[in-house]
Amino acid sequence: MKIALIRGAFLNKYEGQLFEPLATKHELVAFSSLFPLHSEFSFPVVRLPSPVDLPFGPLKPLKMPLLNRLYGDAHVLFGLEEKLNGFDIAHCAETYYYYTQQCINAKEKGYLKKIVSTVWENIPFGNQGIYQRRDFKRRAFKYIDKFIASTIGAKQALIKEGCAENKIVVLYPGVDLGRFKPGNINNYGPLRRNRGIKLLFAGRLVPEKGIRELLSIYQNLWSANKDLELVIVGEGGLLNEIKTYLIKNRLNKVYILGAVPYEEMPNLYNICDIFVHPVIGSRTWKEQYGMVLVEAMACGLPIVAADNGAVKEVVGNRGIVADANLLEANIKKLLADKTLRDKLSKRANLYARKNLDSRKYALNLEHIYQEVI
Fold first, then answer.
1. Do 367 and 348 share a domain, yes or no?
2. Do residues 291 and 356 touch, judged by C-beta distance below 8 A?
3. What gap in Å lies between CA 322 and CA 78, rounded to an integer?
4. Into how many domains does the chain fold?
5. Both ends of the chain: CA-CA distance in Å?
6. Is 182 within a domain?
7. Extended beta strands in 187-316, E state
């Protein structure tokens, strides 16, 4: 089969690993904007210009609101429709992205045979404050051949919006278990294995991810245990606020590592002791999946998380998931009980080995493609 993976500016290695096994058996080509999240893959990538590539300079905060209102959605890939000529499958994402509409246009022109879309959105009628997107969604429900919902929550949202249930299949994304697995790591940058218990946060440094709440919790815990360390991985608008908070409160056991290369993430999971996911969401966004949760489970890292969006569905009883107000108490519980940490570690790793293998995901994708064609 000739398969087009369309992700625009969102093309990334987290999701790309799900498609890499297909590239050894089929002709797989990814289509991105000029500056995607990641650019090096085992399959070819065609970069197309997009409005999201525009810098906007000091007006950057206005960039996406203006572009979204101009196009209905800013994720346009100029020239995409013609590039899809001759493909069997176009695999896009969501119902409201502009490049998804471009795939529909290409299908109507007879350039490609079928369209499959991965859906992460789990808030019914979300992302449609811009009036064009309501039409985008209706058109997607009519012309897309199969929707791959990443969670049951995403499936339920699709159905509530009017998508036919027989067009939807739930498929949980996994990771490359050859890379994400338990290992003995003694050093990583400033981190040392036998120097205190390490809490790990990995995610965007934005309010909805709960990083502010985690810092407050860490300050309380650190006041009683000066050997406790906090490792922060990620980038975002709260970075300067976080640095100011650490200086003001003299928290010297917090390590901000920024954006860590994806290939190095298994080392971080394996040198830390507890993965903390303090996500609180917002009015317009709930945790849609959390690939970091899957990565942590595959590496056998015990998880303590706030119950938001898809977190409980993904983690289940392989970690401690409860209301955000209980996050501090649950971290304390894990800190005090190594036996519990070991139990959750083994349970999470076993589940990941059985259910969250990117190769199995790719095989299921292949079967779906064959069915729709």
1. no
2. no
3. 44
4. 2
5. 10
6. no
7. 187-188, 191-192, 198-202, 229-233, 254-258, 274-277, 303-306
